[in-house]
Amino acid sequence: MSTRAISDTGVLLGRSMRHITRSLDTIITVTIMPIAFLLLFRYVFGGAIQANTDNYVNYLMPGVLLIAIASGISYTSFRLFNDMRSGIFERFHSMPIARSAVLWGHALTSLVSNAISVVVIIGVGLLIGFRSSAGVLPWLAVIGILALFTLALTWIAVIAGLKASSIDGASAFAYPIIFLPFISSAFVPTGTMPGPVRAFAENQPVTAIVNSIRALLDQQPVGGDVWVALGWCAAILVVAYGFAMAAYRRKIA
To answer: Membrane spanning segments where (predicted)?
Structure first.
């Protein structure tokens, strides 16, 4: 990305962030559902679930954070669809700005807004018993994984925002993604699941990501899970980015 494109992206990021700060209900809406799941599993289902851990909140936290991100990226699609419908893209294209900056502005806004949601949820987790003895480097690794996961899903959201024909369609794609953590190791060990469900759970990206984050926060060996997690995130990011840019070029052609 050229210096000019980086500068243009920064300007468009500032524009999108101003919209978010003027409408904080977006972040509130995104955090309500994950916090509800956190409280529900902690205080209602937690006593009946055998997760082989003394602190079930620690076990829950990685999956809840992924649900928050999966929920948050739907607003990227929503904002992008509104920009397309309002005709502001045409105005941007008539100005001397880098074409890619328009999409990257939305992508980085998603990264920042989801980071805020993650911090809020971790804060709630601390209030109800979440604890981590991890040092600075493991936490940086967790932040890196969450950021890569967010960017990967964000570019899927960009595709939905560019291709959707209605506001409902622009955000509906997120529902299957939000559901994925429930068929993973996010809430219960995969060993407790029936055969076919277990096979799916152990070979989908969320399980490797959850296991990696959980191990890092508990200062346990991450093993090969972290490489599987990074591989999934990187592959989704590259493929989604390619399809998003192709869809964008068709839109502005």
So the answer is: 24-45, 57-81, 102-130, 136-160, 172-190, 226-248
Specify the DSSP class assigned to residue 220: -
Helix, strand, coil percent content, the chain, rounded in steps of 5: 80, 0, 20
What average pLDDT does this structure show over 84-94?
Answer: 65
Q: What is the DSSP string of 155-195?
A: HHHHHHHHH-SSHHHHHHTHHHHHHGGGGTTTTS-GGGS-H
Count Cβ atoms within 10 A of the Cβ of residue 63 and give its class: 0-12 exposed, 13-18 middle, 19 or more buried.
buried
215-227 tens-digit pLDDT: 999 988 888 899 9
**108 falls in which pLDDT band (50, 70, 90)?**
confident
Rg over alpha carbons for the chain, rounded to the nearest Å, is 19
pTM: predicted TM-score of the whole model, two decimal places: 0.87
Please report, as a single letter, which amino acid is at residue 29: T
Delimit the domains of the chain by residue range: 3-252
